# Entry
Amino acid sequence: MSIASPLTRLPNHKLALGLFLPMQEGAWSPSKAPRSTSWTFDYIARCTRMAEEFGFDLVFGLAQWLGKGGYGGEMHFREHEVDPIIANAALSSLTKSIVLINTVHVLYAWHPLHLAKFGAAMDHISGGRWGINIVTGYKASEYRMFGLEPIEHDLRYAMADEFTTIMERLWSEDEELTFDGQFWRTEKAFLAPKPGQRRPFLVNAASSGAGLDYAAKHSDLIFITSLTGADPVKACEALPAHNARIKDLARRYGREVKTIINPHVICRATEAEAHRAYRTILENEDSVAADNFVQTFIGGDTASWRGHSRTQWVIGGNLHLVGNPEQIVEWFVKLADAGCDGVQVNFFDYLPDLEYFGREVLPLMRQAGLRNP
Ligand SMILES: Cc1cc2nc3c(=O)[nH]c(=O)nc-3n(C[C@H](O)[C@H](O)[C@H](O)COP(=O)(O)O)c2cc1C
# Structure
C-alpha cells in the first residue's frame, strides 16, 4: 500500500518558513559575542512558541554526539544538547499547529521497528505534526561512541534506504511484516496503532549523489545547502540547477518534494547596523572552537558545506543574509526564484532576533507574496 504524502498538511505558502532551533550550546556560531541564546529546554520552548505565534510552518532540531567539551574553546561550543526527539515530544504538548522535526541517526544501532513505533507515538501525540530528519552520520567519532566502525559514504545511504523501507511498510501495511534484508531482518513485526491517516514527515539533508537519490525516493522535505559557500549572490547562481536536479530525481520516483535552505539571518533596521552585528560576531570568535568546528567539515566525507570559508563558519549556518528587512525579503524572493520552496532560518541571538524578524520581516514577506495573508 502506498502512503499518502504529508506535504498536503503544510499550508500552501510560496516560501515555507522554518526555524533552525538552537539545540546546542552556541547554536551555529563559535562566537563569544553577548547573546541570550541557550540550549535549555525552556529557551527552545520559548523560541518554538514564538515561531508558532508568528505563523512559522516548522521548527527543526539537529542531533549530534560530541565528546566532553563539545568543539572546545572557552564556550565548550555545542557541548550541551537536550535530545531532540524527547524535546519534540514535550514541545508537541506546548504547541498546536507548528510541525516539529528532529534528527535521528538511523545507523547508530537502531532497528526500524523502534523508530516506526516512536514515529507512530509522536504522530499521535502531536496530531500529525512530527517529522524525522533521517541522517546517516558523517563523523567517525560518533560511530565509535556506539561501538561501531564508520561506514563508507554511499553504503550508508543504501542502509538508510532499507531502514526507511521497513519503517514505511510497518506504518502502512495491515499485516505482520517479515523482511529478510541485506542489513536488517524482522519476523512478524507489527505496529498498532499506525500513525494517523498519513505517515510522519520524512526529511533528509543530503547533498551527494547517493544521498539525494535516497532523499528523492523517501523524503518529503529536503534540506539543501549552498554548494558555493555562504555568499547569497553565488548561491543564487548555483541553486536553480541544484533544485531542478532534485525535483527531477524525485519525479523519476513519481514523487513531489520540497527543498528548504538554511539562511543565517542578521537583520537590523539599517544595513549598516546589520553589518555591525555581523562584525561583532566575528570579532568575538572563540578561535579554538572555530578551528575544531571547521575541521569537522574539511576532514569528513560530506558533500555539504564544501564552499564555506573559516570566517563563514564563525557566523555559521548556510547562507548569510545580512541587511535591513527589505533586503532580507529581496533575498528570500531570489531564493524562491532559484527554486527553493522554503527557508529554515537561524539567528545569532535567537529570541530577540526572532521577535524582530516576526515584527519587521514577516509582514514584508506577505507583501512580497511569499507568505499568504
Ligand atoms: C540543514 C541540515 C541539517 C542537518 N542536520 C544534521 C544533524 O542534525 N545531524 C547530523 O549528523 N547531520 C546533519 N546534517 C548533515 C547531513 O545529514 C549530511 O550528512 C550532509 O548534508 C552531507 O550530505 P551527504 O551525506 O549527501 O554527503 C544536516 C545537514 C543539513 C544541510
User: Anything to note?
Assistant: Residues 62-64, 103, 105, 133, 135, 137-138, 205-208, 211, 223, 225, 262, 302-304 surround flavin mononucleotide (CB under 6 Å).
